[in-house]
Amino acid sequence: MDPTNKPKGPSPHYSLYQREIFRRGGETGQLPHFSVHPEELQESTKAKLNDRSYFYANSNAGLGWTDRANREAFYRWRIIPRTLVDTNVRDMTTTLFGHKIPAPILFAPIGINKLYHPLGELVPAKIAGELGIPYCLSTAGSQPIEDVARANDAGAAIKNESNSVHEYSGPNGGNAQGPRFYQLYMGHDDEITISLLERAWKSGFDVMMLTTDTWQLGWRPTDVNIANYVFYYPNAVGNEIGASDPVFMKKYGEELKKDSGKWIDSSVWHGKAHTWEKIDWLVKQWKRISGGRPFVIKGIQNAEDAVLAYEHGCEGIVVTNHAGRQVDGAIASLDALPEIVEAVGDKLTIIYDSGVRTGADVFKALALGAHAVAVGRLYVWGMSHEGEAGCRHVMKSLLADLDILMTVAGYASIEKDVIGNKKAVKYNPSGTPPGPGEHAHL
Q1: Residue among 134, 301, 103, 101 at smallest CA distance from 204
Q2: Does the active-site annotation cover 322?
Q3: For glyoxylate, which residues are the binding ones (predicted)?
């Protein structure tokens, strides 16, 4: 808590953000404008947004059992604290695809951010740059690829001006806020796919991430109830990447004027599944365009698929069930993680994504073998409240939460003490977490 008693370490003292909030409250009476308790934050977001905006990011498949399974899995794994360990200097840094980053957290790809703030993806891209942690842009984004890259660069410039102590490097040395991921939804027009890859690479997105579990939107009753497919409505958002793509517009621009769903229906959620044979082609194209930079598959829930990803030339995978939005009644992603790690943990970089709400969740996923953890709904909820300030507050709070947890649980280094350390967690098969709104208030 005392900033004068903090020896310099390899990563920022994120824990001091809690002290900063306490000091502001004690000295000036200034309190945070909204709660970062995840359940309270979700509820206040629902009150803040209209139904179409709220449910786009928060609808789940079917009865929502997969979403609940994700949270129950985190509840069943328990952290085993150590004591009398020197954690005065924590090292939260790790290396991800050649980039040394200050913490093992990245911004997951979420589409149509303009539903949550008029600036859309420019908000989280900038905050990710400020924090020095990776950002991933969705093909269903509501800002052009090039504009998002500039926002990410602008955030990184702020970080570099304000922080001369902690510098993080990219594959070619120098400061970096990367890796910068581009999440691809791949349609069946190869010319458009190539155009997106080229645009992403030219804009500094140096890791390609293909989502493979969402050729078709899952059955989401809370979206069906309000016909929540915003691409069909007047002044539709979500077409910005297509509308700024020269190949798409040359071939389909006139159709887009007549049908606002042309981009999203034909190039994003087109309903026609690809197979592993297409992955060979796509990896080859990305390697050619990027000079060999990594290719990642998002949507892995099975060890056999993880092995196939390795055999087809991928350098990484994202273990995720799309946060419970695609297959109702599916296995929790955290439950799938240990078997996948056992199969390919020494061959592939493994990113965990689904159901993450707290620093403890991040810790557990890392201890079970993930190399980094992606966060989605949290930052959307934050930006829904106060744009940049809200997104920054939520993400700095998550980083402080993880930093403080490592301090008090007795784990000093992410890479040495946490990642893959199954002795740091214990499985408890009984019990379920409280339902929504049932958490205790102290």
Answers
A1: 134
A2: yes
A3: 56, 185, 220, 322, 325
CA-derived radius of gyration, the chain: 21
Residue 392 annotated as part of some ligand binding site: no
- pLDDT tens-digit profile of 270-322? 999 999 999 999 999 999 999 999 999 999 999 999 999 999 999 999 999 99
Closest CA to 66 of 327, 290, 294, 274: 327
Is pTM beyond 0.70? Reply is yes
377 is in an annotated binding site: yes
Q: What is the pLDDT of residues 376-435, one digit of tens each?
A: 999 999 999 999 999 999 999 999 999 999 999 999 999 999 999 999 999 998 877 776
The DSSP element (H or E) to which 94 belongs, if any, is strand 94-96
Q: Is 183 annotated as a binding residue?
A: yes
Any residues with CB less than 8 A from the CB of 352 and at least 6 apart, and which? 318, 319, 320, 333, 334, 337, 365, 366, 370, 372, 373, 374
Write down all domains in the chain, each with its CATH number in brackets: 10-424 (3.20.20.70)
Sign of the C-alpha dihedral, residues 308, 312, 316, 319? negative
Asked if 415 contacts 91 with a C-beta cutoff of 8 angstroms, the reply is: yes
pLDDT for residue 168 is more than 70: no
Full DSSP string of 393-420: HHHHHHHHHHHHHHHHHT--BIIIIITT
CA angle at residue 296 from 77 to 419, to 5 degrees? 35
Choice among 322, 371, 385, 393 that is catalytic: 322
Ligand-binding annotation for 18, yes or no, is no
What is the phi-psi region of residue 402: left when phi exceeds 0, alpha when psi lies from -120 to 50, beta otherwise? alpha
What is the number of alpha carbons within 13 Å of residue 344 lying toward its C-beta? 28
352 annotated as belonging to a binding site for a ligand: no
Report the distance separating Cα 292 and Cα 294, nearest Å: 7
Q: Does residue 357 have a known ligand-binding role? A: yes
The helix/strand count (H/E) of the chain reads as 16, 12
Q: Facing residues of 405 across strands?
A: none
Cβ neighbour number for residue 227 with a 10 Å cutoff:
10
CB neighbour list of residue 431: distance below 8 Å, 6 or more residues apart? 75, 76
- In this structure, what are the phi and psi dihedrals at residue 254, rounded to the nearest 5 degrees? -65, -40
